[in-house]
Amino acid sequence: MDAPTLLFSEPDLYLQTPAGNRIPAHATILASASPVLQNVIKSSNRIVKIHGVPDAAVTAFVAFLYSARCTEEDMDKYGMHLLALSHVYMLKQLKQRCIKGLGDRASTENVVDVLQLARLCDAPDLYLKCVKYLTNRFKAVKETEGWRFLQNHDPCLELEILRFMEEDEKRKRKTRKRREDGRLYTELSEAMVCLEHICTEGCTEVGPLEVEVGRGREPCSKFGTCQGLQNLIRHFVTCERVKGRCLPCKRMWQLFKLDSSICLRHDSCKVPLCRKIRLRMEEEKKKGDARWEVLVRKVASAKAMSFLALPKRKRVEEIRGEGQ
């Protein structure tokens, strides 16, 4: 007998709600929807008792068994009950619907209850979503009755959540550190490009002796960095203290050293002291600073990535410029 015919046939069993009400149903439809119900029907006297949920939730459950649909209203009112029923009676489609519906409806007031149910019903995706929600709104959630109940009755789960929050904060700190380091490496790689540009072509105020700078000179595309570097170079040249003693001079020496460390053409490089610093570093290689070596690799990588991000025509122009 097909499903449409069954709907017009006499029901052959009843689902009994916790309040004792009986909902007529068809054994074939229930058995085809749930292997658990199939086994219950075989061993029952045609009355299947549903426990632990409101009668209206049982009605919504039966409606899903017949239509494979769950209304938004039913999800709003009985989502948690339907998740429990879907888990007990092994209804995968309903369970997925409840996981999504409850995840979308998570709130400060209900997130602890939903989290506990997700844990009991083997719904890891919903559990993780609730823990993340709780972590992001912990100040508000810890004031709720649900959190106080959890503290009093399930300290193991409380500890599990707090550990997750601690690990999440560690991950966020690492992510922030990587981003900050990435910005630093990018800024330093840009400074290396600008230093080479100033020492080769000259910019608005500073350049090699054979290049005229100043009058009518247009700012370059990285003028923000270039301007700061020009100011640093002017100070370095005119500083009356012993070289390298004041902070600006120390910064300039570090930039010269970094440029020499990543430069691949020391013989033709026009950046001052490039070859000399390189030879000195090779002599002191045995005393190499691991942190400095990491910095050099990261800046060289950032410089390469910046170059690859340029349009093809611009890359070709720069390569030709270096070859001249």
Automatic annotation (TrEMBL):
Membrane-related topology note: Peripheral membrane protein
Subcellular location(s): the record lists:
Endomembrane system
Return the GO cellular component terms, semicolon-separated. endomembrane system; nucleus
* Any one GO MF annotation of this record: calmodulin binding
Domain BTB: residue ranges: 11-74
Its pathway is: Protein modification; protein ubiquitination
Q: Which UniProt keywords apply?
A: Metal-binding, Ubl conjugation pathway, Zinc, Zinc-finger
Q: Which domain of life is it from?
A: Eukaryota
Q: Where is it chiefly localized?
A: membrane
**Which GO biological-process labels does this protein carry?**
regulation of DNA-templated transcription; response to hormone; response to hydrogen peroxide; response to salicylic acid
What Pfam families does the database record attribute to this sequence?
BTB, zf-TAZ
What name is this protein filed under? BTB domain-containing protein
